[in-house]
Structures are given as C-alpha cells and as structure tokens.
Specification:
Elements: H1 2-7, E1 19-22, E2 28-32, H2 37-57, E3 59-60, E4 68-72, E5 83-85, E6 102-108, E7 114-122, E8 129-132, E9 148-154, E10 166-174, H3 175-180, E11 188-192, E12 195-197, E13 205-208, H4 210-214, E14 218-221, E15 228-233, E16 252-264, E17 271-275, E18 287-293, E19 298-304, E20 307-309, E21 319-323, H5 327-337
Parallel strand pairs: 3-7, 14-19
Antiparallel strand pairs: 1-2, 2-10, 4-16, 5-14, 6-7, 6-9, 7-8, 8-11, 9-10, 10-11, 12-13, 15-16, 15-18, 16-17, 17-21, 18-19, 20-21
Amino acid sequence: MRRALIALGVGLSVLGSTVVTPAQAASVVMVRLAPTTTEAQQVARFWFADGAANLRNATPYAVRTAADGERLSTDIVPDGPRYSIPPLEGPASPEGGMPTTSGKVFFVGSDLQPHWCTGTVVHTRYRNAVATAGHCLLDTEAPAGTLANWVFVPAYSEGTAPFGLYVGKVGFVHQDFDDVRDYDRDLAFVNVYRGVASPSPDVLTNVGSLADNVGAQGILFNQPLAPAADVFGYPAGPHPDGDRPHTGETLERSTGPTLTMNVTGLPMDRPVGVDSQFTGEGSLGSSWLTGYTDDSRTGYLNGVTISVSDTDGDDRYDTGVSPYFDTELCQVYRKAEAFWTGVVVI
C-alpha cells in the first residue's frame, strides 16, 4: 500500500501535510516538507515561539542509535567512477577550527515531541543543502511519512542560532531506504529555504542563503577508505555503562581511522566505521570529513553517523557507523544538488 501511494505521488504524514513523490531517477525519492512559503513561516514560528522554547527543550533523537558491530580488515571496492565536489569556504571565523557548517537538525517525532540530530552543509549549486542520516528525515517508527517541522540551525551552541534558522523545503532519499529500510541507503539531503531570524515575537527576517553564511563541505563518492576522518556532531546520550561524557549543547569533534565493519541489528551489507567515542543520541547525522583543515574549516564529507557500536565489549561506544558513499547515494546527492528553494520572507 505504501509503495503504491509513493508511485502515485501521494504520501501520508504523522504531522502536517507532507507529500512524498518519486524524483526523476527511479532510485531517488523526493520528500516534500514545507513546500509553500506559508507552511515554512509556520514551521519557523513553531521553533522561535516563546523565546525559542522548542529549540531549547528539544531532546536528542534516540531511534536506531546503537548496533552490534565487528571491525574488519578488508577493503571497500567502489562500484563506479569516483565523484567529488569541492568545499566552499565560508566567511565566518569561529575559534578553534570548528566548522560553522555543522549544526543541529530539529524536528518533531512521532511522539509529538521536539528532537534533534546533527547535520552539515554540503556544497550544491544553490548553496542550500544539508546532509544527515536518512532516519533523521523519514520517520522509521511510523508506517509512512516524515519527521515534522524540519529545520536546520548551523553552529548551534547552548540555545543560540548565530546564523539563523533554515526551514526544510524538500528532502531526497534513496528509494530503498524509503521502501524497505535498507540502511546502506540511510542518507538524506535536505534543501532549505534562505534563513530566517526572529528579532522580536512573531517577526521573521531574511538572513540569506545557508552556504553564503557558513560555507559548505565538499563531498566524495566511490572513494577508497580514507586513512582517517574528523567527526563533528552533538553527542548527548550515555555509553552502555551509563556514563554521560557529552551534553549535546556544543559541537564536538573526534578524529580516528576509518574501517570496514560487520553490523548486526541494522539491515545493511556494506557498513563502514570510524574510530570515535561519540555516543549515539544526538550525534546521528554527524559529518565524517576527510582532508579537513582548521584554517579553512572545510573538508570532504564521506560518511554520516547512522549508529554507534561497542566493538570490544567494554560497555563504551568506540565506533561510529555509516553507509558507504557509493553510486546509488551519489544519485541522491545529484538530485538535491540542482534543487532551488527560495525565501521564507522577503
């Protein structure tokens, strides 16, 4: 039934008027989030209301945060030609080499409560795309539909939105993730409107395009495993032993080698891993950047955290898990790369 609805360009939403339609490529699905200016304004006001209470009170998303995993010593074999897009350096200059391209993805879950994942800006034609985990866009706990009131706040820190709030207009995912929950396809790109700020209650002002304000990371597909990756995210959950070393209030960074994996508990055939102490809740969607430099605060996205794993059994998460960025996921990116969004307010 669900597949027939999507094929006809009709979908259901847990909250709101979300529509799911197939994109031009048969393997890519376009998800409509806030397709009109009126809907986008309503979403922005939801998050800015009462002194941005919903942003401040959101909790880390806790769906599919951990999986049993085993580290392997095998190599990844690309399934097609290499594809790369260079990064775009932004004007912002934070201290400590942390990228302003990383931020929190906020949405309302099927429990009707506000939650967050991590997202990152990637370089596209219209400078308006955010990459995150697919299950930080599609509601995998519901039979059909998306997570509602989807927005991105770059460089989020302790309740602030220093570069504004960006409402999602449409998202793109692979059909195999939408249809059969294939976690080798657990990656989403969301095209956002130009950003807004709220200098006073019920007032929205235009703050410009996302990548013009914060820059954008490059992206790689069909590459050999990088020697190491820098992971940027907002971890907040506990380790299996109950320890909570992270608050989720500020962006954190971990650096480690990448590797191939076997994973149980997630239906996927070709997971890759990165040595990282991040816990799962809050860090879902964290960017894995290769070739990252502190001076430019840019690199190349080549993974996103979809789960974490304790691979040595010491009750401490030690590995982030990502789908391998292959030809199929490149098709998803290329649909998002060419999508225009527009403004929420003039």
